[in-house]
Specification:
about 150 residues, alpha+beta, binds inosine-5'-diphosphate, binds magnesium ion
């Protein structure tokens, strides 16, 4: 099954939305196979947001990502990268569709509560960036037959 990397940003931690976001993940039938709290620093943020380091808003973005610890997660499911990006919603919370995590829980283009990998290739890179191999528990729930039909997973 596919895996994706998710960060619950300081805007999620500080606003006490962690439980609600994790509930949505589990309600959907997405499996959590890695979870930890960590304090990000400039070095990891310059790698993680390499596509944005030259933007004028990067210093503010980096500061906002270091304002508190984050919660990093590895999620697992069939097509989970695409499924979870859809659940996340577009970058700007004010434009995100109601029903998405950003569309339901935030009003900001920067403090948008959550990061989710945008491709299978980037998910692999990002999981390796934030997790050591022994921190990812690639288990299968005992009741997996109630998550997926025959031949689906
Ligand atoms: P994504 O998180 O939806 O994949 P990206 O374009 O990869 O969006 O941007 C990464 C993060 O950088 C966003 O989630 C947001 O926190 C921040 N960001 C993106 N564009 C802007 C901007 O124009 N102003 C401030 N922050 C931004
Ligand atoms: Mg992105």
């Amino acid at each position: 099954m596919e895996q994706t990397l998710v960060l619950l940003k300081p805007s999620c931690i500080e606003r006490c939305l962690v439980g609600q976001v994790i509930t949505r993940i589990q309600q959907r039938g997405i499996i959590i196979c890695g979870l930890k709290m960590m304090q990000l620093d400039e070095k990891i943020l310059r790698e993680h947001y390499a596509h944005l380091v030259d933007k004028p808003f990067f210093p503010g973005l980096a500061a906002s990502m270091m304002a508190s610890p984050v919660i990093a997660m590895v999620l697992k499911g069939v097509d989970v990268v695409e499924v979870f990006r859809k659940m996340t919603g577009v970058t700007n919370g004010r434009k995100a569709e109601p029903g998405t995590l950003r569309g339901d829980f935030c009003m900001s283009g920067q403090a948008n509560i959550i990061h989710a990998s945008d491709s299978v290739e980037n998910a692999k890179i990002e999981i390796n960036r934030f997790f050591r191999p022994e921190e990812v528990f690639d288990y299968t729930p005992a009741n997996i037959a109630f998550y997926y039909g025959d031949g689906e997973n």
